[in-house]
Amino acid sequence: MKLLTALCVPYVLARGVFPMLGYPLVVNSAVYRFAWIGCLSVSLFCFCAKRCHVWFRNLHNSIRDDRYLIGRRLHNFGEAALANQNQNQSSEDAGDGVLIGREGDVDNGLRLRRAIQQEA
């Protein structure tokens, strides 16, 4: 279908539509000569425009997702989070490398090591 369009549209424009407009034979010959180059240029421009549109849309979505942290979980989100973390650390007993669960977690499957909590 694309090959048929690429061959027929320039021919129909150059031999059918353009001569009916009443231009001289020299102009019609020039239009016939450059019709395929012109259609190729237009189709190449449309292809590049579509690719750039997709690229900019993906870039915009990526920046938005990074800004609002879509699909990620916020761990440290302000003063209240630091106070909660300090309170949880002070109430727990000392043990290195032991997996512990925090009571405030919504997702109970996520567990942090004590060493990672102390570094943060």
From TrEMBL:
Pathway: Protein modification; protein ubiquitination
Its EC number(s): 2.3.2.27
GO cellular component assignments: membrane
Reactions listed under catalytic activity: S-ubiquitinyl-[E2 ubiquitin-conjugating enzyme]-L-cysteine + [acceptor protein]-L-lysine = [E2 ubiquitin-conjugating enzyme]-L-cysteine + N(6)-ubiquitinyl-[acceptor protein]-L-lysine
InterPro entries for the chain: MARCHF6-like_C
TM annotation in the entry: 30-49
Keywords: Membrane, Transferase, Transmembrane, Transmembrane helix, Ubl conjugation pathway
Classification via PANTHER family: E3 UBIQUITIN-PROTEIN LIGASE MARCHF6, SSM4 PROTEIN
GO MF: ubiquitin protein ligase activity
Protein name as catalogued: RING-type E3 ubiquitin transferase
Membrane association type: Multi-pass membrane protein
Region described as Disordered: spans on this chain: 85-104
Compartments, as annotated in UniProt: Membrane
Residues in E3 ubiquitin-protein ligase MARCHF6-like C-terminal domain copies: 2-64
Keyword Ubl conjugation appears in the UniProt entry: no
